[in-house]
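Hey Z.,

So I finally got round to the manganese (II) ion thing we talked about over coffee. Here's the setup:
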Amino acid sequence: MIKANKHRIQTYIESLARFTATPGNGTTRLSYSKEDAAARRYIKQEMANLGLSVREDAVGNIYGKLEGALKNAPAVIIGSHFDSVPNGGSFDGPAGIIAGLEVAALFQEYGLEPQYPLEVIAMIEEEGSRFGGGVLGSRMIAGQITPADLYEMKDSIGLSAAAAMEKLGFNAADICSARRTGNDVKAFLELHIEQGPLLEEGAQDVGIVQMIVGMTEIRITVRGRSGHAGTTPMEGRADALAAAVSILNELPGIASDESDLPVLTVGKLDVLPNGANVIPNQVVFTVDIRSANSDTIKRILRKIDKLVADAERPGISLSIDELLYAEPVEMSANIQSLLIGNCEKLGLRYRKMVSGAGHDAMIFAGFTDTGLIFVPSKDGISHTPEEWTDYAQLQKGIEVAFETIVQLTEAKEKSSNTEM
Ligand code: HGY
Ligand code: MN
Ligand code: MN
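And the result:
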């Protein structure tokens, strides 16, 4: 059995973790930031060191390709994202990119030639931390985003995604050239940390994801009238925060009233002009809703629409923008069975599971055979600097990914030209 190189895996993870805007306080690596640019240079260099042909698409996704024996054949892609949440961990995203790098390294070390080309991918803006919504790199690959969308998406200082990518030499107008389809992608495999407690609690090595829950992210803007905190009577105020609180108070109950345990999170909230002695004239907050049942999500959205309508009053106006909507999506049964067979072949404990977290895999599943495997997260935590996966565990997950990529690319040993 071919063993992955634990030391190399650890070096990759620790090297990527260096590219953060908050050293000592987790990974903060926003898309198209200077930390992105530094991480990008490192990833491209490591791909080149592995003998992969390296390119970036028009919007900044990075590819490293190992040509296959079959010319112009659809590729098998493995990878994940290299952006992060603010003060996140070292493994969320990078674990999947490093799985791709390590698989490519093993192909080279053991003289394996894929029949179908192998592509390692590192995608931007899966978290949506800079421009909202999320899975943006993969949605651009899937053709779900237009150049106009990229001019409309703004970061916290009002810079558009189009302008931000241009600073790194990418070009929103050329987004169509980033498009991939089932004609040129045979399969996509993502390895990711579980970001939950189940594998650790069950002492399993690998999670085989059957489906990813549906999710939506909306942004609610409440507009009022600012004024002096001391001289404006309470009567007649158009206090945007007071109106927002009337909605915020009701949101948790809307989710808990549902029977199938959806989750609802208000993760971002901005109060403007944010002065202690100024009545707020604008409040903007996000609502992240997830469920395995899309009817539940739609029912919750309707209830929020009503809450927003009821919050209208003199001087107060409200609007809702949808930043992301993704239906629940099944992972490929074929790839699930390959993954299970490889866990059994390697003597690894596994469990089938549902992903409550979103991943680029949910977008690739819309146009190609897609698989997603999890490795355990210590104490089930993620999106914090304390996020951790033992390197021995990451190594096991990568060995399952390696065996599966060998099958998907129909790799053969170069010398004897025999099947693996
Ligand atoms: O939000 C998520 O589920 C993922 O971490 N982007
Ligand atoms: Mn994440
Ligand atoms: Mn992730």
